[in-house]
Amino acid sequence: MVKEILLSRGAPEALATTVQTIVTHISYSSETRDPALVREIISQHPELAIVQDADRLDAIGAVGIGRTFTFGDAKRREGGMAETMEHFQEKLERLEGMKTATGREMAGVRTERLRIFRGWWEEEALIGGE
After folding, report:
1. Based on the number of CB atoms within 10 Å of its own CB, is 60 exposed (0-12), middle (13-18) or buried (19 or more)?
2. Please, are residues 77 and 51 in contact by the beta-carbon 8 Å criterion?
3. How far apart are CA 23 and CA 14, in angstroms?
4. Tell me: the pLDDT tens digits for 1-27?
């Protein structure tokens, strides 16, 4: 779809194909399904590593905390906020492995924010009986 839109707007075929390839392989789940394929694509299109880092950085840190609760509420998870908090350990805290030096530095700071928040959450949940 992205490729067709770019082509219809006059983008060169090579650019449209590259952008389509990058967009198709950004997601964390895409990489966990076939890490070798993603490594191969990054060797051909190093821009993918930068875009992946940016996408994953958006999911962690203070903004990521807000997004996680917004998403959890929108999905109306039966487990409520506690189930949303499980997502921190299941996925968000695992996103720290970035591909670029800048991404790794930023992810370290943001992942620590997630861990600190989760610790506060667990402490208060014990007191409040959540």
Report:
1. buried
2. no
3. 14
4. 899 999 999 999 999 999 999 999 999
